[in-house]
Structure formats: structure tokens, C-alpha cells
Design a protein that fits this description.
By secondary structure, this protein is mainly α. The chain folds into two domains: 44 residues; 107 residues. Helices cover 95% and strands 0% of the residues. It is built from four helices and no strands. Helix 1 packs antiparallel against helix 2 and helix 2 packs antiparallel against helix 4. The longest helix is centred in the middle third of the chain and has 48 residues. The protein is flat.
């Protein structure tokens, strides 16, 4: 028993160290690439550096707004899931009584209605949040391209 626990702890420690090192390596690589890219753009294209400094707070505000919207949409989706789970639980616990009173159709219709409400709340998330982020990225792209002819 002790040998098995020692072996499991050895395997888990090796896996944690391995994946932690990958994570740290990826984080360092992405972070340093971002710094090098930003510094290169600021050095090579001075008008863009002013634009980056001017647009960075706006981009941060857009990202914050998208994050808040995303949290609210997830909250709406999760709150719509509660009644569906309650209906399933009530149907399971009262299935004998529901069959005796011929109320199966009531639970089925109610379940369909609640799942419909849940689907409406769930499908709002990708249609509301992703376009906001796409608009922010497109706006940054347009502004960057608007400044680039100034240099040439």
C-alpha cells in the first residue's frame, strides 16, 4: 500500500513539474514575444507608437466591457438552468404519482418550455460577446492601417 502511494505521488509530482514547466515556458515565450513585437513596432513606426499609447486605454475599456458582458450572460444562462434541473428532479421523485395521475405530458411540456428558455439564454452568449471583441480587434486594425500611410 505504501509503495503504491509513493509511486502515485512520484508520478503526480513528475507530471506537475512537467506541465508546470511547459506552462511557465509558454508564458515566458508569449510574454517576451509580445514585448519584442511591441518594442519593434514602436521603434520602426513612430506614429504607431503614439497610436498604441492613445488606443491602449480604450482597448482595455472594451475588453473590460466584454468581460462584464460575458459574466452577465453566463449568469443568465446559469439562472435559466436552475428551473430545468428542478423540473427533472421533481419528475424523477414524483414519477410514480405522475404516472398514476396521468401527468406525464405536463412534465414533458414544462420541460420543453424550460429547455427553450435555457437555450435562448445560452445562445445569447456567443452572439453578444464575440462580436464586441471582434469589433475591438477590427477597430484596432483599421486605426493601425490608417496611421501606416503617414510613415511612407
Amino acid at each position: 500500500m505504501t509503495n503504491e502511494l509513493d509511486f502515485m505521488s512520484l508520478v503526480l509530482s513528475r507530471l506537475c513539474c512537467r506541465y508546470l514547466s511547459f506552462w511557465i515556458d509558454n508564458l515566458f515565450q508569449l510574454g517576451s514575444s509580445l514585448v519584442v513585437f511591441t518594442v519593434s513596432v514602436m521603434v520602426l513606426v513612430p506614429p504607431v507608437s503614439a497610436l498604441i499609447l492613445a488606443v491602449a486605454p480604450v482597448f482595455a475599456l472594451v475588453v473590460e466591457a466584454v468581460d462584464r458582458s460575458n459574466r452577465e450572460m453566463k449568469r443568465m444562462s446559469n439562472s435559466a438552468m436552475g428551473p430545468v434541473l428542478s423540473n427533472v428532479q421533481e419528475a424523477l421523485h414524483g414519477r410514480v404519482l405522475a404516472r398514476a395521475m396521468s401527468l406525464e405530458s405536463y412534465f414533458i411540456e414544462r420541460h420543453h418550455r424550460l429547455v427553450d428558455t435555457f437555450n435562448r439564454a445560452t445562445f445569447v452568449v456567443p452572439h453578444r460577446v464575440n462580436p464586441s471583441l471582434l469589433n475591438a480587434i477590427c477597430g484596432t486594425f483599421v486605426l493601425t492601417n490608417a496611421v501606416s500611410p503617414v510613415r511612407s
